[in-house]
Amino acid sequence: MSETASTRALQGRHHRPSVTTAPGLLPSLDPLLREWVPRQRWFAGKGRPVTGFDLVAAAELLPVDGTVDGAAAPGLLHLLVRARQPGSQVRAPEDDDCYQLLLGVHGTLPPRLAHALIGRPDGGPLAGRTVYDALLDPRLCTLLLERLRVPGQLGALRFTVEPETSLASGLTARPLTTEQSNTSVVFGDAYILKVFRRASPGLNPDLELPLALARAKCSRVPPPVAWFESDAAGPVTAAEGPRHHAAEPITLGVLTPFLDGAADGWQLALNALSVRADFTGSARALGHATAEVHTALAEALPTTELRRTHLELIAAGMAERLDAAARAVPALRPYRTRLRTAFHALTTLGRDGRTFAAQRIHGDLHLGQTLRSAGEGRWSVIDFEGEPARPLAERRDVQPAVRDVAAMLRSFDYAARSGPGGGDAWSLEWARRARTAFCRGYAEAGGLDPDSVPELMRAYETDKAVYEVLYEARHRPDWLPIPMAAVRRLAGPDPRLGTDPELTTDPHVGAGPDPYAEADPEEGDSSFTTYAPPEDRT
Asked: Which H or E run includes 129?
């Protein structure tokens, strides 16, 4: 669609009330959404049926009965809805999960969009029309980009473009289908738009942190160029009118430059494992990049010192998560007592007067959250949202930077155990060397040497492994042996049974000199440059 036609579609509204204010909109969509939303990979309430939805906010981005050049054009609705599920009645309504929906509306759905179908409402203002997932329609995605090019307000929605930024128009949209917790669309080879499906009031770290890093001149993270937010707090009631405002806006989507031709770290690692290639040069360079990001975040945003009280709270939270996971996953129970010693060691450090620096961090760092350019082999870090299952306030809190380091070490282990070797001796040695190289690169570039804080590293790696056990038990039971192997190592031998032959010492500490120690940290493994869109992977 041409830029002129796109602009007319965005501006060509009839002088009529919007369907978003018409009675019966959500009730007519409710039965369709109750079937469709729980099947989506980004739906967080799996395992509990959805009994209904509350409307938080609605906007008509494109008229549902609009035309372009005399032909019927699809409409585009933006909805924020709260999902009601069993158990949520004991909480306040605002605590229910809120989801962002972009709905296409058309008389007839073309066959190429059959996979995007949601359904046809029996009544209400959309009766007789077909409703579908607009983010799977390249045409509507292109029109969404056109709307992002124009700063301003539309109902509760607010669109912002970075100063002195001119966004290209008329780019072909390519929706990605590989993500789980969000949805992304690539435009030409210029931009990628990340749309947050689960919406929470407050500035999303995936906008906040890259903006801060861009203004700190950190080149390791693609800078946001445009984004959109909502002021709506919902749910909508007749007494309140069409919307009311939240104390903090809800970040809905962020547009950043697309690193065309870059390869994500997870696929690079699997490629190396598939041909039994060393990865230490790339791992060391990735350690450099991670340290640069942490240094820039510490300079750009507030930091603090964690003292006894803070360490005790952190340890208590870790212990609570362990107990909850053990209740849900019986295989974890025999290791619970020995795993708790990692958290107890933190409280002991606090009582001994030790303190640790805390700052803003990535919060969900793993190989799939990194990209390496095809040319110079330079690493970038992406997806600063943090673990989506955690509350937004927790994801925006300051934490020790080594939490990201521990998470990356777990990712190397995951690659080795899930790759072609299936966790054989060579693959495990590959992981040990990669972990060692990453930590060396991190320390060389100014990060805290992980070997200097073994108690902190063990606590955070244990906490991450416990999280992985619970996740795999719920979503991918066949993968459960991967984090359980880490649990056995981190728990140490059972004194009643003797030494477990699988257990080793701290696996990121090498037993001997690394022959790649002097390699250029920006070189190594450059042959693995096939692009694969990053996923929500460990």
From this structure: none
Instruction: Find the helix or strand (DSSP H, E) in which 503 lies.
Output: none
> What counts of helices (H) and strands (E) characterise the chain?
13, 20
Full DSSP string of 179-208? -SSEEEEEETTTEEEEEESEE-SB--HHHH
- List Cβ neighbours of 164 (8 Å cut-off, separation of 6 or more): none
**Phi and psi (nearest 5°) for 449?**
-65, 115
The DSSP letter of residue 75 is E
CATH code reported for the domain at 263-517: 3.90.1200.10
What's the pLDDT at 13? 46
CB atoms within 10 A of CB 141: 26
* 56 has a pLDDT exceeding 70: yes
Q: Are 79 and 103 in contact (CB under 8 A)?
A: yes
Fill in the amino acid letter for 364: D
User: Quick one: pLDDT at residue 413?
Assistant: 97
Q: According to DSSP H, which parts of 25-137 are helical?
A: 25-36
Q: Where are the alpha helices (DSSP H) in 358-480?
A: 392-395, 402-418, 425-444, 454-475
DSSP helix, strand, coil percent of the chain (3-state; round to 5) = 40, 20, 40
Query: Domains of the chain: which residue ranges?
Result: 3-257, 263-517
Give me the amino acid identity at 85. Answer: Q
Measured CA to CA, the distance from residue 255 to residue 261 in angstroms comes to 18
If we measure between CA atoms, which residue out of 50, 40, 32, 38 comes closest to residue 119? 32
